[in-house]
Design goal:
single chain; mainly alpha; 8 helices; 2 strands; 3% strand
Length: 229
Amino acid sequence: MKYVFIAAFLLWIVTIPFLIISTTTNMYTGCERLYEYGFDKYQISQVTGINKTQLDDVARQMADYLNGKSRTLQLTVDSKDGTRQLYNEKELTHMEDVLKIVSLFHVIQIVSLILFLLLGTIIYFRMGINRILRGLEIGSIITAAFTMILIAWAFIDFDGLFLLFHYVSFSNNLWILDPSKDYLIMMFPEGFFNDVALFMVATIMGLCVVIWAAAFLVRRKISYNLRRA
């Protein structure tokens, strides 16, 4: 029975990086303001000829689509090519693939949250609060270490990491778009994805620091009180 609880503790620790990373990913992929930020920073209105009001609609539609609130991504806009359907079939099919990945992250978030709460409750009553706090420290360190590896890789070869992600994530080459005619890549250039990666890394590392510091300080406080008692 002892080994069962040790295994449960180790599995519980594993849920922490999955929960932190999936939650952060879902927060950004479904963030309308993030897309608006990208449109403003990279002057997408000038690149595409689509005015800001319509770009706001594009940002809202993208967020709704990736959040599962809309069944279609398509919009009619006034662009540099005249009034047109914003996305072609290739782009729409690619975004269907993207939606599958985003949906997978939603599933990972839900499953990891359920396991985190369920196993955490068992560990708390069987092993005590100190084991919970220690697990949070270890889980946050593992998450931070994994993120630091990705950061180092990105600094060394961001393009290679970016390509590897696409090769692993997609079973086709629909993600290879033409910036001269495909509006999806016009509106979301590589710089935008660099920014998103930085935001996500900062958020993940920030959460790791907060979780580790809170668990460490509470554990120290408990130990101090026990020594005084």
